Automatic annotation (TrEMBL):
Residues 2-182 form the Tyr recombinase domain. It comes from Salinivibrio sharmensis. This is Site-specific integrase. It comes from the Bacteria. Keywords: DNA integration, DNA recombination. It holds the Pfam family Phage_integrase.
Length: 186
């Protein structure tokens, strides 16, 4: 499988969300949009419980690193979360699998990583993009970097320790650096 990339323009971000909504379900579009805004790894995103949300903050312990992610939720993300909560007041997980509801004796479970991966890959193929679950995190990092040109802020948001890794991660290439030299004439 090829490495997934950051989505580098807002129109494509919106198109992906739209296609996920109509090809699959609004829940998959919610994963996309909330995932973009939280910049979490997919395992942490899918494991969010409603009781991890405290007012306008999300507080979780990242599975991969053990670091605490204490994230301020922006108004769009809060609105999506509140809509999910209103539609499914009995859910434990933000992205709870509907299959668990069909089999009442099973405890609640979040959507599977596999289901999200397949949906993202299929939309990516339709758009001729290398799209995957990590694209959300990479896209958030890329867009923050483009808005601020502050790699330190991006590193802090992604909880990275290496500037080089962060630059490669968000897809800043030599071509991008060359274009910056051309665009900025002093």
């Amino acid at each position: 499988m090829s490495e997934v990339q950051a989505i580098k323009d807002a129109e494509t971000v919106q198109l992906i969300g739209h296609l996920l909504s109509i090809r699959y379900h609004r829940q998959m579009a919610d994963v996309w949009y909330i995932g973009l805004n939280l910049a979490l790894r997919i395992s942490d995103l899918l494991a969010i419980r409603f009781d991890d949300i405290h007012g306008d903050r999300l507080q979780i312990k990242e599975r991969k690193t053990g670091k605490i992610a204490d994230i301020q939720l922006n108004p769009k993300t809060l609105a999506r979360i509140e809509k999910i909560r209103a539609d499914h007041p009995d859910h434990v997980y933000l992205f709870q699998s509907h299959r668990c509801q069909q089999i009442k004796q099973l405890p609640p479970k979040p959507l599977s990583r596999r289901a999200v991966t397949l949906a993202f890959q299929q939309v990516g193929q339709e758009l001729n993009l290398s799209l995957g679950t990590h694209s959300m995190r990479k896209t958030r990092g890329y867009m923050l970097y483009q808005a601020t040109k502050d790699i330190g802020r991006v590193m802090k948001m992604l909880r990275h320790t290496s500037e080089g890794i962060t630059l490669r991660y968000i897809g800043i290439t030599q071509e991008d650096v060359d274009n910056d030299f051309i665009a900025l004439e002093i």
